[in-house]
Amino acid sequence: MTEPANSGASNVPSLLVDRPGASDEARADILKAAAIAFNARGFEATSIDDVADVLGASKGRIYHYYRSKADIFLDLHLESLRILIDRVGSIAARPDLGPVQRVREMCFAHAIEVMTRINYQKATMLGLNRFLLSVSAPYQEAARQRVNELRDEYEDLFVRVIAKGVEAGEFRPVEPRFASKPLLGALNYVANWYEEDRDDPLDAVEQIAAALADYCVRGLTQS
Amino acid sequence: MTEPANSGASNVPSLLVDRPGASDEARADILKAAAIAFNARGFEATSIDDVADVLGASKGRIYHYYRSKADIFLDLHLESLRILIDRVGSIAARPDLGPVQRVREMCFAHAIEVMTRINYQKATMLGLNRFLLSVSAPYQEAARQRVNELRDEYEDLFVRVIAKGVEAGEFRPVEPRFASKPLLGALNYVANWYEEDRDDPLDAVEQIAAALADYCVRGLTQS
User: How does the average pLDDT of chain A come out, rounded?
Assistant: First the structure.
């Protein structure tokens, strides 16, 4: 099995309106505020006004960057997946690590990401397809499609390394795609129980992530 | 540590309107239809009419049993937790099984429950607190509170058996409550990836559940 290039994150589109001066920073600020608003009220009940309130800015400022609430929600998913694929993909591609250590570090990085950007992850757990039944513009349909592709691509990062570990006899003879499910479930569930206001120092977050990664890897290894 | 009585499921209230002839069967039919409707549209966008459509009955029939959409949603959570606590609680209380085997069978039963009642589990994953900001009647507040208590009670079933396994040296020296999180995450995530329309025969469902239980238990055992 050849190692595919870590190509996913570089071609993730953004739904940011293409304007001179539309910065990554403005995008990040809006997405962060939107994630907080969506988590507090759910997607349907959240208005652009609510997002503006959290941001401490005017509605006009948000419309300068995004066409609609649906666009922000879609962009939140894209950005969240881009970050995960960036971080975890770079570990998945490391030839110096054996499969066991690689899966461990991938799980660790994923858990850290969920805990340190808990609002993003909670918002993406609100689901996507259900909320965007009314999405109709072609660019929105394309973005929704891209979210699903990126999700598969992200899962594939784990599937491939698990397959390598099985080939190498370092993991049990599990079916790699099936085995990736409880592993990702254990990690994603962090968004349900880790409190966003815990404000743990980084070493406490890392300790939690390491324990989770250990749990996930043990499920795969030979006993 | 003494084995607490499996007391949880017996005192789970229902939000069914107290009427002569209000049967468990009618309740189950409405909850099942509501779960399908909530999953298709989300909580806010679902109307009693939508539930009636899925049920193939009139809106009046539903109002005969439930006061509101919020009541149905609350009852869905209560019923789902009652079933889980019933099934898994009876395994947790079995003195003939050692902790490792007990956790395995508890995980197995939980996974089976998620797969065979996937609409209930998906609907409860929509979350509760966010959607019921407007709930104000005291009986609804009490029901919401009860849902959270039952969720804790359910988690405690796992925490206690994990603690026993640690005491007995059959599990690694994990912190039992912390260890219950990835375990439940791995199991609950099934609602995200198992397709409701797969219509697998029971032995296929059991095979999946056994593989998941195996994964979950391995995360806890000494290597």
Answer: 84
